[in-house]
Amino acid sequence: MKKRVIPLVLIDSGGKVVISKQFNPWRTVGMLMQQIRLHDKRDADELIILDINASSHGKKIPERILKIISKNIKIPVTVGGGIKSVEDAKRYINLGADKVCICSLAIDNYIVITDMVKSLGSQAIVVNVNYVWFEAKPYLYDYRTSAMLNIELGEFVKKMADCGAGEIILTSVERDGMQIGFDQEILLYLDKFKVTVPILISGGSGNAAHYKKILTLNADAAIGATIFALTEHTPSSIRKECEVENIPMRQI
Amino acid sequence: MVYIVPFDFCNIASVCRYFESRSIDYQFLSKENSPMVKVDWILIPGVGTFQEGMYSLQDQGLINIISNFVSHGGSVVGICLGMQLMFEISEESPGIKGLGLIKGVVKRLSSCQAKIPRVGWDAVYVKEIKQTYSLFTPISENIDLHPIGPDFFYVHSFYCNPNYDKDISGWLKHGDSFYCASIESDNLYGMQFHPEKSGGTGYKALDAIFLAE
After folding, report:
1. Among the residues of chain A, which ranges form H helices?
2. What is the enclosing helix (H) or strand (E) of B1?
3. In this predicted structure, which of A93-107, A163-177, B133-147 has the lowest mean pLDDT?
4. Most Cβ neighbours (<10 Å): which of A166, A185, B6, B213?
């Protein structure tokens, strides 16, 4: 499989697209439809769209927003935010998502993931794990309460993979929006746990060299938000740079 | 008219979007429909499990419609799970019978060779230039397998293993081994990758089927 470069689109209320720093949204960068079309045209490998308010407000992503997504894109889309049950996941997928992204539910009631896998298949279920480092170990972070949890990342990721999650996103809260580079340590740490599902790394990218570094390691994809909103880099310009380093990238 | 099999557990919107972009008429297949051989198409999309797919076809009363259509020479296109359902059985759901339109079984990819599920962009390999109409235009006459150039998007943990190699029109590479990526068998077409999700490259592959003539 080729390595992937994936833009992340964070939506706030009403389809506004925002970027965040260490999980605090600080700037609106456009509207959803315009952002999706841009990424589609710029040959992103995939797109991840997360509603940052849905779970904390106990809401679902409205049908109108899901339709905007499906009508404007011909690459794979992962959608997350507010998913609490198998029915929610089915609804998102039926209205235009290719995969659903589970985050809060994985913390609250991960057993539901097993049921989702049964009816939707592993490949449709992505688990996003937000984490922070504490005393040289990564721990889960619950963005709803802005609190670190007493759950170590490695064991949790292993459990998610055992439940049948098809892909795992590791999001570094500390690096989010900082443009200082991806967390390479987390991959070295995770090696010990022998996880066999694809691992996607998120948080911290600011230039093409950051992608080269992380994709040379055991990451299957690297995810960026701020970089695509605030710099001239595009997924295809990053892919070109990675190819120079002989990293296998998608051919168009 | 393209009759799309409606599954409530997978993303049908992206398939519809292709037909809308090409102004090709489509509607969802129901047991009241009788698609016309040589005029209409049936498209089986799909992401999901083999069992869920077959149960849904059964519940909607579509198994006989599809089988009769094919036995009279009707053309069917299967995408991902849709292609797998055209086979006889799958290791994913033991004891569940597939549509059996193509002789062969669906098997699990080995996780020793590379990561499972197999998600992302990768090549389709082809063997030779076919005399008859083919989904893809190979880049050389060499008998070895060649990537056709642009990559396609794959999401799967299982692969189709037809009894007859002649049914395979394209291969995919998993670890160091090659497996079936697409099939072309008389009036049946199947793709393991997602042409509706593979950008302009994927739309071209669909054009080769639906806009051919």
Report:
1. 32-41, 63-71, 86-94, 104-108, 111-120, 153-163, 185-191, 208-216, 226-230, 235-244
2. none
3. B133-147
4. A166
Stretch A92-121: mean pLDDT = 92
What's the burial of A38, exposed, middle or buried (CB within 10 Å: 0-12/13-18/19+)?
Answer: middle
DSSP B142: -
Low-confidence ranges of chain B (pLDDT < 50): 130-134, 137-143
Put the strands of the sheet holding B104-108 in their side by side order. B89-90, B104-108, B158-162
Q: For residue B27, what pLDDT is reported? A: 97
Beta strands B188-191 and B177-185 are antiparallel
Q: Which of B52, B123, B199 shows the shortest C-beta gap to A74?
A: B199
Q: Which of A54-58, A100-104, B1-5 has the lowest mean pLDDT?
A: A54-58
- The closest of B156, B158, B154 to B194, measured between CA atoms, is B154
The yes-or-no verdict on residue A24 having pLDDT over 60 is yes
- Residue A35: left if φ>0, alpha if ψ -120 to 50, beta else—which one? alpha
Q: Which of B67, B119, B111, B86 is nearest to B189 (CA)?
A: B86
* Amino acid sitting at position B92: E
Using CA atoms, how far apart are residues B17 and A75, in angstroms rounded to an integer?
12
Amino acid at A215: L
**pTM across the whole model:** 0.91
Q: Which residue has the tokens 């952002």?
A: A35
Contacts of A17 (CB under 8 A, 6+ apart): A9, A10, A11, A28, A29, A30, A31, A32, A35, A229
Q: Model ipTM?
A: 0.88
Q: What is the pLDDT of residue B213?
A: 64
Check residue B67 and give its pLDDT: 97
Q: Nearest CA to A154 among A201, A192, A118, A124?
A: A192
DSSP β-bridge partners for residue A100: A79, A125
Predicted confidence at residue A222, as pLDDT, reads: 98
Q: Distance between the two ends of chain A, CA-based, in angstroms?
A: 14
Counting one residue from chain A and one from chain B, the pairs whose CB atoms sit within 8 A come to 131
DSSP per-residue codes, B175-189? TTEEEEEEEEETTEE
Mutate to test the interface with B, among A41, A70, A98, A195 (most CBs of B within 10 A): A98
Is omega for the bond preceding B117 within 30 degrees of 0, making it cis? yes
Chain A hits for B150, Cβ within 8 Å:
251-252
**Whether A97 and B11 lie within 8 Å, measured CB to CB:** yes
d(CA A195, CA B76): 38
**Secondary structure letter of residue B138 according to DSSP:** -
